[in-house]
Amino acid sequence: MSANFHPLVYLIDYIMGVIMWTLIGRVAMNIFQREDSEFFFMKVFVKLTDPLINLFRPITPSFIIKPIIPLYVAWFFYMFQILPYALSIRLFCNGNAIISSRKRNCNTNLPNFW
After folding, report:
1. Taking the CB of residue 87, how many other CB atoms lie within 10 A of it?
2. Of 77 and 53, which is predicted with more confidence?
3. Which residue range(s) make up the domain with 89?
4. Residue at 50 is within a domain
5. Would you say residue 109 lies in a domain?
6. Alpha helix segments (H runs only) across the chain
7. Number of domains composing the chain
8. 8 Å CB contact between 92 and 100
9. Greater pLDDT, 34 or 86
10. Which of 72, 75, 104, 108 counts the highest number of beta carbons within 10 A?
């Protein structure tokens, strides 16, 4: 599927993907290493992801155990990463959306995800 997005959208999508996979990598490495480990890669993952985890701390539920918090934050980046694609495919086609006030021509070659 090819979409005609502005190159800035692709850049933002790529950056959010890197952040998401870095957070997932921290969770995966945390299975084998402690967060205060002297292993170089674990130090890098913790140093890169701690500011993001601290940024999301106000909206992180208290019942999530500490090793899984990076996965919770990665979920937000996944949702923001896929949202432009989900909104552009079929959601606003043919006046189906509540905020859509007119019929739009949709590419019928796109798969129908909805």
Report:
1. 11
2. 53
3. 7-95
4. yes
5. no
6. 7-32, 40-55, 69-86
7. 1
8. yes
9. 34
10. 72
Asked whether residue 45 is domain-assigned, the answer is yes
Closest CA to 33 of 23, 22, 21, 46: 46
Please tell me the pTM assigned to this model.
Answer: 0.67
User: In the chain, what percentage of residues exceed pLDDT 90?
Assistant: 27
Ramachandran angles phi, psi of 81, nearest 5°: -75, -40
Question: Is the pLDDT reported for residue 40 higher than 80?
Answer: yes
- Give the up-direction half-sphere exposure of residue 21: CA atoms within 13 A in the CB hemisphere: 5
Residue 102 lies in a domain: no
Residue in this structure with the two tokens 């959010």, named with its chain if needed:
16
Cα dihedral 53/56/58/59 (nearest 10): -130
What's the DSSP call for residue 78? Answer: H
Can you give the length of the chain in residues? Answer: 114
From residue 44, give the alpha-carbon distance in Å to each of 30, 48, 53: 12, 6, 14
Tens-place pLDDT, residues 8-20: 777 888 888 888 9
| 49 HSE (CA, 13 A, CB side) | 29
